[in-house]
Specification:
By secondary structure, the protein is an alpha+beta fold. The chain is built from three helices and five strands; from the N terminus they run ααβββββα. The model is unreliable at 20-28 (pLDDT under 50).
């Protein structure tokens, strides 16, 4: 039983650590406002003031007023593995890389 519990805790920790975008919205780079994650510190590619939501079913929707950008992602994989978190991160990285300054 202890081995199964340790595996679950390791999986949960890996999922949290690998879900960079989600942690920026809710963790050290942001806070909550009007029921959405709001970026309050510059962390990676998004502007301060970006707001939105990562859903546990593999969806994500964010708006970045500074960059005049809105993005919505719908997947069919949910947040069942750490790869799901990487998919969301890769989507947002690609979206921001496509912006021409």
């Amino acid at each position: 039983m202890t081995v199964i519990r340790a595996e679950r805790e390791t999986y949960r920790d890996d999922l949290a650590k690998n879900n960079v975008h989600l942690s920026f919205g809710q963790g050290i780079q942001g806070g909550w406002g009007f029921g959405m994650a709001v970026r309050t510190y510059l962390g990676d590619y998004a502007s301060i003031g970006q707001f939105g939501w990562d859903g546990g079913t593999g969806t994500a929707a964010y708006a970045d007023p500074d960059k005049q950008l809105t993005g919505i992602l719908f997947t069919q994989v949910g947040m069942s593995t750490p790869d799901s978190a990487h998919l969301i991160q890769d989507f947002w990285t690609t979206v921001y890389q496509a912006i021409e300054d």
